Each structure stands twice: as structure tokens, then as C-alpha cells.
Amino acid sequence: MFRVPFAAFRPRVAIFLSLIVGSLLAPLTSAATSSPPSLLRVRPVAPDVFVPTVYDRTGRATSATNGLVVRTTQGILLIDTAWNPEQTRQLLRWVADSLHQRVRLAIVTHAEAASPAGLVVLRENRIRVYSSQLTSRRWQLRHAQAAGPTAALKPYTVIRAGRTRLELFFPGAGFAPDNVVAWLPRRKVLFGGELVRAQQTAALMPATETDLRQWPATLRMLAARYHKARVVVPAHGSVGDITLLAHTQTLLREAARRKPQTALNGRP
């Protein structure tokens, strides 16, 4: 087990204010820009745990991406970031205005979960960005001229901040070769990210590096390890519970039936 010291992220003054839940449901729109406006919506899923969802509108299509915000007595932990600079600034403004704290540490769960411009905004705000070594390498291959996340995470890493314990775990390949999950044992919240599909999702939408053979075994490991999860957060779509793992397994079985075994990942 590897522990990331959190003392360096302790705010100079701890501020404790009550949170008006109703404000979480109010969408935040970006300031007037030449690009189409994006929408940020934040929902509480457990005490001190929130799911920010960024909606990107391109033409008639709308895509939604989830992250995780964890409030601690020593600052905010952010799991994955928004896609572009304005969305990232919106999220940081929401944290400051609603939680009255600053983001101290951001975790990137896989190489596609953070854009170069979004990471620039985080670093401008003195936020450290950590990932696994594999994620850092994959990210750098895609963005050779940009500064990527710091490779500070081991396959199993624990971050402690006051009474908050955040576990980061690499269960194996699936949607991506490097997808890491986040677990809050006190709140029974599992951030499954791209490894998990929402209940309303009818297809896997695999990527080029998706490992369809390993993904089912990775999900079985998650189901055994986090069977007490009450809240499961997918990368896209509605938040659910532990049944999202079984739903994703069903989608994988359907994908395997539709596709010959010799075609899975191009391997015989």
C-alpha cells in the first residue's frame, strides 16, 4: 500500500460552512464566449461527496461526463477533470462558491480523462495532478509537448485527509489499459469511471485499446472487492448502485456474442 501525504495540501484557514443542497441543482453556464455554451451540473450522492457532470454540446449532439468531488477538512479532492479550460474553471468556481474550499489535489483515472488545457487551468490554480505511471506514459504519448499528470500513484494507493480515506486501485485492463477506480469506504461510494456503464446505456462503445477479454475479469474483481458499495458512479450517464457492474457484464456478454472470438482486440 502506498500513502500519498496530504499535509502539503492543507489550507491555511479551515472554513466550515453549511451547504445549501438546492444550489447544487442549479446549472452553471459559462461566461459569454465565441464557442457554444457548456453546462455544469453538480449533484450530492453522499455526505461530502458530489458528482459534477459536464455537458458538451456540439451541433445537435450532447455528451455528458462525470467526475467526483470529495470534501475533506483539508481541502477538496477532485477525481478527473472537465474537458476544456472554461469547464474546468466553472468547476473550480463551483467548489469555491458552494463548498468554500479550494481543490488541493486532482486524480486522473486514465489517459483520456484529462485534456492538456484542463490540466493547465488546474496548475494555474496550484492544484497538484496525480496519476498512475501507466496513465502518465499514455497521456504523454498523446500530448508530447504538454505537461501531463505526475506519476505518483501505485496500483493501490491510499490518500488520507482528516477522517477521509480515499482508496485508488488499478483492477486491471478494461475500457482502457490503465483505468483506475476510486473508493470511499466510509461513504460506500465507488467511482468506476469508464469501467462501468450506466443502467440506461445499451452499448459498450469500446475504444481502440479496449480489452474486451480482460474487462469481465476486471469487473468480477471490482464486484468482489467493493460489494458493499451503495453508490457507483460511471464515467457517463446516471449514478447507480452495485448493479451497474452486473449491467456492464451483460453488455460485455452481448458484445462477445455479436463479435467472433477471433476478432476481440484483433487477437486469435
TrEMBL record:
GO terms for biological process: antibiotic catabolic process. Belongs to the metallo-beta-lactamase superfamily. Class-B beta-lactamase family. This is Metallo-beta-lactamase domain-containing protein. It comes from Hymenobacter perfusus. Keywords: Signal. The keyword Zinc does not apply. Residues 64-236 form the Metallo-beta-lactamase domain. Residues 1-26 form the signal peptide. It comes from the Bacteria. The keyword Transport does not apply.
